[in-house]
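**Backbone shape codes:**
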Amino acid sequence: RTTTAAAAVNSSRAGAPRINAAMERLLDRQALLDGPHAALTVKLASSNTYSHDVLAATLAEYVGEIMPRQHEDPNAKDTYYWFGDFSSPDSWRPLLDEYHRPSVSCVDDAALSLGVGGAGSGVSFHYHALGFSEVFHGRKKWFLYEGPPPDFRPEESVYYWARERYPLLPPEQRPLECTIHPGEVLYFPSLWYHATLNLDPYTSFISTFLPEPSSCTER
């Protein structure tokens, strides 16, 4: 089952200015590597459902050395991915403050998570509170289930799952899926299982995690 960018909110329309054009420039691959953040340490989490293993590296080491060679490993616990964990959060605050958050009333209480990944990277099926995810570079594919996915294997990489097991699923067991392009924002419901797969050599994004749905209304 395929949904489209119509399921995304705040998506850019042809010819319309992007609300977060400044973030797109700041999160360009070369801009990050040439800027003050390149030497900062980031915490890379394993790409399995529980993300329990952590590896520390500088941003330059991750983008230049670790990121390009990871996606073919079928074991998510051996694949490391940067999605929001900082060793020095205050150093990233000025950059994150440039981000225009989605227009819901509880967004000021939200937590922001910045991520960067290469082709074939992503996170296996997991769930959490509701939120939004916006892509600035590259394309990110989403697979979503309202309940637990069939034959759930938390240690399997999403790249391996998408290549080897997804094609074998009968139509009634396939997830909702869509691909988010630069300038588009996806809303994900609370407690829905989802997996993400980055399709291009460089993907940058910010996810916004919100409080409980009862406290959120559209502005």
Observations:
- Residues 3 and 178 are 5 Å apart (CA to CA).
- The first strand starts at residue 8 and ends at 9.
